[in-house]
Amino acid sequence: MPSNPSRSLETFANPAPERDYCIRIRVPEFSCLCPKTGQPDFAELLLEYVPDGQCVELKSLKLYVWSYRDEGAFHEAVTNRILADLVQALAPRFLRLTAQFNVRGGIYTSVVAEHRAAGWSPPLPVQLP
């Protein structure tokens, strides 16, 4: 197999560190295992972040997400763990991770976790006529 799952998140230098801008990454094929039944849980992840010095390299993110495929985790725990790992690797100004899990037993679960760097606040939106 040419690639293997990995918990290593690679980064590269932010090409515009002087500016606040948002990077949005959609991961429609996240999966992990239910820690109670061992059955697969599927989710779509939406990562939104304002980088500071570093941006996440997408192939490493793909391999990182893949590393959860055979791991049992509650929705809340896995969402917060992914957020913590991304914050540790990137030290972003802001990061929001939304995990929308597919239906299981008639119940949909969405978990939203956020990080804000100390002292950072979002710029005011521009109102155009």
Structure, explained:
By secondary structure, the protein is an alpha+beta fold. It has one domain (11-116): GTP cyclohydrolase I, C-terminal domain/NADPH-dependent 7-cyano-7-deazaguanine reductase, N-terminal domain (GTP Cyclohydrolase I, domain 2), CATH 3.30.1130. Helices cover 19% and strands 38% of the residues. The chain is built from 2 helices and 6 strands, in the order E-E-E-E-H-H-E-E. It has helices spanning 58-66, 75-90, and strands spanning 11-13, 23-33, 40-50, 54-56, 94-104, 107-116. The strands form 2 sheets. A 4-stranded antiparallel beta sheet has the order 2-3-5-6, with helices on one face. The longest helix has 16 residues, at 75-90. It is globular and about 50 Å long.
Features:
129 residues, GTP Cyclohydrolase I, domain 2, four-stranded antiparallel β-sheet, two-stranded antiparallel sheet, 2 helices
What do we call the CATH homologous superfamily? GTP cyclohydrolase I, C-terminal domain/NADPH-dependent 7-cyano-7-deazaguanine reductase, N-terminal domain
The overall pLDDT average reads 95
Helix content: 10-25%
Structural class based on helices, strands and sheet pairing: alpha+beta
Helix-strand topology string:
EEEEHHEE
The coarse overall form would be globular
Q: What's the multimeric state? A: single chain
- End-to-end distance, in Å? 55 Å
| Strand order, sheet with most strands | 2-3-5-6
CATH architecture: 2-Layer Sandwich
Could you name the CATH topology? GTP Cyclohydrolase I, domain 2
> Strand percentage, roughly?
35-45%
How many strands in all? 6
